[in-house]
Hints:
Blueprint: H1 2-38, E1 57-58, E2 86-93, E3 107-113, E4 116-118, E5 121-125, E6 139-145, E7 162-163, E8 169-179, E9 196-200
Antiparallel strand pairs: 1-2, 2-8, 3-7, 3-9, 4-5, 6-8
Amino acid sequence: SPHLQYFIYEWMLKMKMKMKMKYKAIVSGLLLALAGNSYAIDGRINFTGEIIKTACVINNGNDLDIELGTYSAAQFRAIGDTSPNIPFTLPLANCPVAQKVGDPIPHFRIWLEGDVVDATHPNLLLLQNSFGDTMSDGVGVQILDAKTKNVMLLNTLPTMTYDINTAIMDVNLLANYKSYKAPNDITAGRADANVNVTLDYR
């Protein structure tokens, strides 16, 4: 009958309205939850630093080639033995100096980055070159500050600083071979290594 049809129509319309309201409530709840999560933080990291125009130029922009010598494997009689220290200089030019009397003296740290022997020898450079030569095994290269004789750290920011008193200056360093294997396990071969140098003026 027309009355029954009208009743059914009204009932269906009310059901649709209720479903729409429930849907809106669910969506609104989800959006609020997501918004809440986006602002739920446990901490903050702020990065600071500086980029400068004037900086020291190392060896006129050229690589430094240091000859460490040729030694017998038999000279390394125990783990930790070293070859003689070979002095070398890191020549610097165009360094940023204090502009006037009373200004703080600028300084830098030396980042040395390279492949190391292993995790237990983090400051010993791995022997390698780009020519595919057979490398000696059982020794690596270590670098030291010439004045303090402290071993230079690799792949980490050192605490040692160098004051910049003049635009042209030298950093005096030492290098040697150091054994990390028993004498009988040291093999013959090339003993080349390389390290990247970056000056950090913080």
